[in-house]
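To whoever is covering the structure queue this week,

Two jobs came back overnight. Logging them here so there's a record in the thread.

Job A:
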Amino acid sequence: MRYRLLIIFSIFCFVEAMAQDGRQKWAEPQLPAEWGLERMPHNNANPNVYVYKDKRYDALFTRSLGWNGGDGVQTTLLPDGNVFWSFNDSFYGRATDASSRIRRSSNFPRNSLMVQTPGEDGLPGAENTNFVWLADWVQREDSTAEGYYHCRTHLRHPNGEKTEAQIRRGEIDQTWLYWAGDATVVDGCLQMLWAGVYNGTQNLMQPRNRALAVYSLEGKPGSPEYLKLLSVDHNFIVHDPIGYGSTLWEDEDGHTYLYSCYQFRKNAGDLLNTSSPVVARSRTHDLRSPWEYYVADASGKFHWQNTYPTPEEARRSAISSKSVATPWVFKDGDWYYMTAQGFVFAREVYIMRSRTPWGPFEDCRHLWSMPRELDKLGTRTYQHFYMPHLHQSLSRQGELVFSTNTDCKEWADNFNAVGSADFYRPYFFRVYNWKALFEE
């Protein structure tokens, strides 16, 4: 009996020592209180990984006048140190203050833009004064009149159904629209991809064309020249069901890599689709240069081809065996990493890696998980968690920064109830010591 107890005690000591050793390998981050980070304990099985809610950025996007909600949140660092932000469906109008957070009269532009200026430390500024909203306002003069602090859609689809008179009144196209893809800086201008969407059949949001818009970077935020739309090619890709360029990686090899996920049923009897990450690339960093698509042939051998993949080609061209959504790729050291959400609408965000930007991305690890409840008044549970976008431009110490999108169960829950203004808006999270996941 004594011998058995001794063995058990020895095993316990060994396991405890290993756990202690694991905790001590990576030091806990020492973070200034003014950053407003709130740790989420037990968010990762690896004790070295620290996940935080970013309460300071949450507060910046808890807004009551003008923009007060939006999804599809993406950022691009600009050469002048400013950060370019794009949003998809957004609410513009009024909401009540922090005591009730009720969204009142708002309209619903399908895309909009904002610029964040640097703070005194050179990092993206974290004060309201650092946000410059590039909004086409309906009217801001009369708070008692219709359309107060409403906003028009930034980029209309050429097939939009509203007349110019309706647009001037603040009405929004709902049948044909654009949602934002990623953006990059080339030759002193911002190039941005826009996904054309047709919403005329049972709100199915069917992908159509891919547009390429070019913006000026002359002047300063707030001036007429800054981010002025110089050109837009609505037929850059006439039909783009896959959505290449939802996210980008500008590589040192001279190419810009364009990622998306292609959803399909592997087997006829499957109840759910699978969602496979796929990649294309532009011949140079200029997105107007010819594109090549990374495609596997019938034997599974990959090659770059100039023609847009057929559905059959896309189905066999996954660059990861994991079924995921919202892939983001970046490089650190000799490795390329991809972050992505588990499909479909999983709370888990994963990270995997590859030696090349075209994969395969394997060695998949759990990175962090979305909490089940939101930090808000009123109803705290949400319906879907989607589009966990990675924001490299917001990182301060090499941590990974995410914004998240969540919606409520019923559309009407976005209005006229306590806490309704804090649905359909981003919440922010930072992940420190993430490389500990891949420590040998």
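Job B:
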Amino acid sequence: FSHGILHQGEADRVIPGLPDDSLDCLITDPPWEVEFDKEFGSDPRDGLQLTRDALIALKPKLKSGALCWMFCATKHLIKGTIWKLITDAGYLPYEDILIWYKKHTAHSSKPYRELKKDYEPCVFFSKDIGRDLTAPLFAVHEGTVSRADKLHKAQKP
């Protein structure tokens, strides 16, 4: 969303056309070795490389103090993949994460081997020294997206 205009398309085509210092916020949910790789048959590292490239290309487009949010899988937090990805792209991660609690959406591909996931973590970071939030924000957010309101298969509340 830039200057009241929604830009839709492939990141490598849209990002170069955005003016520098024009974006106040970045909210992203990149391909994390899940559907992207099943759909395109790519190496799991390709999704991480695409995300890194997009973050690097977006950095000059963000205003100073811009706040950024990246939804991700817990395994990438635990392994340090997200921290490395964000810092390698030149961003400053906060030491907090947002937890999107999905009350009615617990799932597991191996329910007797792993915990059912009823949440999705979201990493909070900034282009440089991030500006203050406009209101207090709790670390756990409960929200749902009804099927009628859903516009995307991975839509966030």
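Note for Job B: The mean pLDDT is 81.

Please reply-all if you pick these up so we don't duplicate work.
Q.
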